[in-house]
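[Meeting: bench + compute handoff]

Bench side (C.D.) handed over the final construct sequence. Compute side (W.E.) agreed to return the predicted structure before the next meeting so the bench team could plan truncations. Sequence as handed over:
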Amino acid sequence: MTEWDIKKLQILRTLRDRGTVTATAETLLMTPSAVSQQLTNLSKQLGVKLLEAHGRRVRLTDAAQLVLRHAEAVFAQLERADAELTGYLRGEAGEVRVGAFSTAVPALVVPAVLRLRAAHPGLEVRVREAEAAEAYELLSAGQVDLALSLAAHAPPARDARFSRVPLLADPLDVALPAGHALAGAPGLRLADLSGERWIFGGSGPWSEITRAACEAAGFVPEQAHSAAGWTAILAMVEAGMGIALVPRMAAAERASGVVTRVLEADQPRRHVIAAVRRGAESAPAVSRLLAALREAATRR
């Protein structure tokens, strides 16, 4: 029978995810030579070629991809076994680590932590602010147990590494200066704002969300200023420098000189999900945190 080495399979999976031997070594706290040696040994054990040269880098062979498709089922089962063992050993105590994007921390994570602190004081939650790309790297590497992100920026649902849990459809409101001519207009629609100057990030998720919402309303927004943080965006809106779409989850950061209007006819939304490593959703600490996050989402 072929010998399957879990540790070496994890190294192969990390190489697939990170793309280079150097990045794999950094993620796993190994040396590049140790990574290469382990993968060479795995290739010998399995009797197939796993890597091939691609310029100055290496890429996985079709055989390696086949091996990893089966290995994902093994990893998921090991996660389930670890979850059951953790529940047996820790009971109501333990630790769960969360990677979450900035507006999700005060809107969802903090209320969930407060709920858990009251119900399960022995359970500790550690929070790390991280946007989607970093959060899923941390989740895959085992450095966080749960990642919160926008659904549009999560790995695809078919990704065998993760289980996705829908949490919230977060409405997008439009932020206008308090003295804007349309600040009190009834039945305001995005199309009414097609001639306005807009404020949003130059790239990344918020740029894509703003452009997509406006294009769905029939126009391409004119970008007047570029900013990623809500404090900066809302300060510019308050100063009359432009308008912006603002997620309702960011309500706590709104400035006094800004009017936010609900776009009832358009109903733009961004969808927030939680993700865990497949099989880990039954771990007691993770399961309790997911329940607390769902509760926080329903209260918004």
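W.E. noted at the follow-up: The radius of gyration is 23 Å. C.D. will use this when planning the next construct.
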